[in-house]
Amino acid sequence: MSAPFSWIRPDPHGIRILPANAWIDPARPVDRALVTHGHADHARGGHGETIATPATLAIMKLRYATSAGAIPVEYGETVALGGGVSATYIPAGHVLGSAQILLEHAGERVVITGDYKRRADPTCPPFEVTPCDVFITEATFGLPLFTHPPIEEEIAKLLARMGAEPDRCVLVGAYALGKAQRVIAELRQAGHHAPIYLHGAMEKMCHLYEDFGVGLGELRLVADTPKDEMRGAIVVCPPSALGDRWSRRLPDPVTAMASGWMRVRQRARQRGVELPLVISDHADWHELTRTVEEVNPAETWITHGREEALLRWHQLHQRRARALALVGYEDEDD
Amino acid sequence: MQHFAALLDALTYTTGRNAKLRLIADYLLATPDPDRGWAMAALTGGLDFPAVKSSTVRALMHERVDPVLWSLSRDFVGDTAETASLLWPAPATIDVTPPPSLDEVVGRLSAMTRQSVMRDLPLLLDRLDEPGRYALIKLATGALRAGVSARLARTAFALAFAVPIDEVEEYWHGQQPPYAPLFAWAADGAPPPRTDHLPLFRPFMLAHPLEETEVDLADYVAEWKWDGIRVQLVRVNGETRAYSRSGDDISASFPEMVAALPVDAVLDGELLVRGSHQGGESGGAASFNALQQRLGRKTVSKAMLANYPAFVRLYDVMVLDGEDLRPLPWTERRQRLESLMEHLPASHFDLSPLVEAPDFAALAAIREGARDEAIEGLMLKRRDSPYVSGRRVGLWYKWKRDPLLVDCVLMYAQRGSGKRSSFYSDYTFGCWDGDPDQGADLLPVGKAYSGFTDEELALLDKHVRQNTTQRFGPVRETTRSLVFEVAFDSVHTSKRHKSGLAMRFPRIRRIRWDKPAHEADRIDALRALIKD
Q: For residue A12, is pLDDT > 90?
């Protein structure tokens, strides 16, 4: 028998599953890819086969306009990859379709989380703790200063500001896949039923969410709306559009941004954000460390983010951990 | 304390001046005494707690957080107070004591000593949430970083209680935090605090630009506009202070002026350094650059005093021997000033001479020559004008000489703030360091964000977006393709810029869409205009 976990190998462009000739979230086209979720830094186009949840495959089809080689896997379903490796897709609670992938080979269990969070999210099923030997985790918010407040508080701040500025609109910068739909769904849960106005780049993704049963209420496009109609309303756009010429068509917008980075005042100031909303689709520090304790693996591998601090935490708690130097993962806009 | 913390956070995220004024004014109206007075003190830099240092906060955190995790976090945030407020651990037992008021916070911080601070500061931190802890540490260690000047805070005070800003400025300087008499006056209509028995700053009278107006010299007198800094010397009961235009006490930087005033008076003049640069030998004043050597110093060496001797060229007298002369017409104040001159030492005071001319056209001709004299321009003062604070239409005018002009090439553009936040509206431009056709490069010489219309701004913004070569956060580098005709008042040597030059008051005079970039001016042309 070979050395423990020698069948799975971190490579700068992704995680390789050697006996099955497959990759997890590869950064370049490969013959066979297992994709955790639809964000562009994890889901790239051009693979021979793409094994993912139906929602993730739909998102990739929307983005790359092709579904060749798509192999859908439902949550809880196990697929045999060949070479004695099986993969089970488990909810990660990050965005619609997001999955952890449990790999089993010769009695060894490895969980790759992809990106995940532990908070309730009306747009996707919650993260499930899955016991394993090797736990491969992200660390986007892997510094102890990151504590995401309850989303209800942030949504209340947003609604309060909207109510206080009847002559302006509140323009919320939110990642076009996941964050935007979650913010809209949470606004609906908080009883805000007025139309919400969208940047054109979000329209199709919102429709895709609705096709998967996530109700988002009445959405209108900014491009189709006279300026005055948007006074006292909420407008959602990708973060890159906040300082863009596009925003000139809005009535004196209050610039808001929904992101875990908004926890740090200077980060908000640098982006010219007037209303920071600490809303993240990633685990905060306490959730990252609690998850490691609950999963209780023999070893943790850290894919991307603030890995130094999470490594230090493992050291302080006598846990084994290593950082994988993977390229291509981004986290700036979450 | 939570209200103050909320104000601080709101100010942090607000860029517009008017929005900041409204936030502070609303806070002052909604907050009781003495908390609002302490808040004004914090915003105007009027509080000091010597026992609490940034190192104190670090030491407290090292007792509570792993040092590696602390330093990784501190590096990420870039601010010790904010990192500490985010990482402060929740107290082990739930504290039933309510969060402290700002008044309680100030009282406890004042009572702390180097010995007690490590025990007492945590007790306060334990009672506050994250924004409260941030505000507490910022307040205790001095720098709020909320983008609010003392002047802005006092303007908000005036706005809140609908009192004149000039009166606020006049009374403010004699008061100590939490300014109970000021709030009693402004909010409750009590009589204003007395100011006549202390050497306090009085708001300056200021001038409007002359623009297209012509005035009759029968009604107006002319004086040179000297290029120093406006200064007010105040002596009351033998105690003397020197104040800058904004009301900052600059006595420590100019001890010889404080010692030289032999009478109780409030005098308005231009602070200058002896030299022959402005107005030739008879002008007796060095360039503004020489004066700059003396500014902003807390102590002044003997060499400084000898090499850059200061004096004041007097424009006006506001108070003399306890008598407020400000209601009198300028002609009467001028007479009182002229007769006062014989009691002042000529080593430290002279009188700003009047510029005589038979009519306005003759005066215009004299002004034309002002560039060679290295003077900023002319002042025109109505002969019957009382001394009133601020700018009043029709009383005083400044008639600056025409600006210098140079053709520069746009190099970098930065996004503006507020209404201009989606526009590239702040421009850095340069001149050629040699012959551009022989491969010479551009060196930045200045930055401007005014002098163009909204329509021109839209075109400039489009130009920047279409000609970007590199991006650095909010800054874009552009192709070297667009020429600005830049107007400025003067140019000086400066170590701050790579070109070794710094312009005063640069603004964009014309956008030369038509002019090829290689025909813009060279550094040498600009350097020839230096008159240091």
A: no
